[in-house]
C-alpha cells in the first residue's frame, strides 16, 4: 500500500464539482490549469468524468438542491477518492452565511472531506499548496 | 513456436509495445507542453498514470451488458498488440506472413469497433454520442486510408506482403520519391490523425464538449487498458507509414539506425504539431473533408501509381 500511495501522489486527476458557488472559486480553478501555473509538472490533470477522478474539488455553499447530487457524485467516483473543499464557503459560508437554503455547513456534513483550502477565492498557489499538503499526509 | 511467442509477448509485441507506447505518449505530452510554453510532465508520468489506474476500483454498470463492457477494452488491447507484432517483425527482423497488409487493415478496424461496442454498452448519453461519432469517423477515414495503402501495393507490383514492399523499395528507391507516393503519404498522415483521434479529429472523445465521450464510464483497470491501447497506436501507425512509403527501417549501420529513428520521430512530431495547431472540426466537416477532398486525392494518387508516375 505504501508503494501505491507513493505513485498516486504523482498522478492526480482532479474533477471539478461546483456545488452552488458564486463562480469566483471556479474561475480560480480554471486559472489553476492554465499554462501559467502548469500543474501538469506535478501530474495534476483536470478531467471531465467523475469515474476517472482521484480528487474532487468542491466549491460553494451546498444548497438543498445540490446536496443529494453531490452525495451521488461521491458514490459514483472510483475509490480511493479524496475530497478538497475550495474556498471559505465550504467551511463557514462566507458571504452566504445566513442564506436560507444552506445545507452543507461545513461540507463534511454531506461527504467526508480530506482538506479545506480557505480563501475568498483562494489563489491558485494556495490550491497547489493545499493539494500538496493533502498528499503529504498519505503514508 | 517459442520464437513466435517471444515476438508476441516480448520484443515487438506486448512488453515492448506497452513500454515504448507510454514513452512516445510522454513525447506527445512534452512537445504539446513546449508548444504552449509550459514545462510539461516528468518522463515517467504515463507510467504513473497507468499504474495508478491499475489500483483503482472498477465500477460496473448495473443495467449494462457486462460481457461487452468488460471485453471491449481487452479485445482492443489484444488487437493493437497483434498489429504491433506484425508491423514490428517486418520492421526489425524483415519477417512477415503472407498477405499481412490485409490482416493489418482488418485488425486496425477492430480497435474502433471495440471502442464503439464498449461505449454503446454503457447506456450513458455522452458515451452514446461518442460511439456514434466514432462510427462516422471510421466510415469517413477508412476509404481514404485503404486508397492510400493501395499506392505502395500497386507500385511494388501488386504485392500485399510488407516484406516484399520493403524489398521493392530497397531495389527501386523509396515510394515517397514518386509523385503518387508523396500525395498518398500526406493523405496518410491526415488519416493517422483521424485513426488516433487526435486534435482536428478528436470528435469522438471531445473532452470539453462531451466530457471524454466514449471512455466516460470506464474506470480502473479497464480505463488503463484503453489508455495503453491508445498509446500503442503511436508505435505501429507511424511505423507502418515508414514501412509503406519511406523504405522501412534498418539497424545495420549507425547511420541507418539514426536515420530510421529520425524518420519515425519526424512523423510523430508532425502528428503532434498538427494536433496542437488545429481546433476540433465538426463531424459533418470531417466527413466532408474525407469524402470530398482526401479520398478523391488518394484516388488520383492511385491512378498515377497505375500509370507508373
Please outline the helices and strands.
The complex is a heterodimer of chains A (139) and B (309).
Chain A: H1 2-8, E1 12-18, H2 24-32, E2 44-46, E3 55-59, E4 62-63, H3 67-76, E5 82-86, E6 102-104, E7 115-117, H4 124-136
Parallel strand pairs in A: 1-2, 1-3, 3-5, 5-7
Antiparallel strand pairs in A: 4-6
Helix pairs in contact in A: 2-4
Chain B: H1 2-9, H2 14-35, H3 45-54, H4 66-93, H5 100-120, H6 125-155, H7 162-172, H8 179-195, H9 207-210, H10 220-245, H11 254-277, H12 283-307
Helix pairs in contact in B: 2-10, 2-11, 3-10, 4-5, 4-10, 5-6, 6-8, 6-12, 8-10, 8-11, 8-12, 10-11
Task: Explain what the structure shows.
The complex is a heterodimer of chains A (139) and B (309). By secondary structure, chain A is of the alpha/beta class. Chain A has a single domain, classed as Rossmann fold (3-Layer(aba) Sandwich), CATH 3.40.50. In chain A, 28% of the residues lie in helices and 20% in strands. Chain A is built from 4 helices and 7 strands, in the order αβαβββαβββα. Chain A has helices spanning 2-8, 24-32, 67-76, 124-136, and strands spanning 12-18, 44-46, 55-59, 62-63, 82-86, 102-104, 115-117. A 5-stranded parallel sheet of chain A has the order 2-1-3-5-7, with helices on one face. Chain A has a two-stranded antiparallel ribbon with strand order 4-6. In chain A, strand 1 (12-18), helix 2 and strand 2 form a beta-alpha-beta unit. In chain A, helix 2 (24-32) crosses helix 4 (124-136). Chain A starts with a helix and ends with a helix. The mean pLDDT of chain A is 85. Chain B has 309 residues and is an all-alpha fold. Chain B has one domain (2-307). In chain B, 73% of the residues lie in helices and 0% in strands. Chain B is built from 12 helices and no strands. Chain B has helices at 2-9, 14-35, 45-54, 66-93, 100-120, 125-155, 162-172, 179-195, 207-210, 220-245, 254-277, 283-307. In chain B, helix 8 packs across helix 11. The longest helix of chain B has 31 residues, at 125-155. Chain B is globular. The interface between A and B is medium-sized, with 20 and 31 residues.
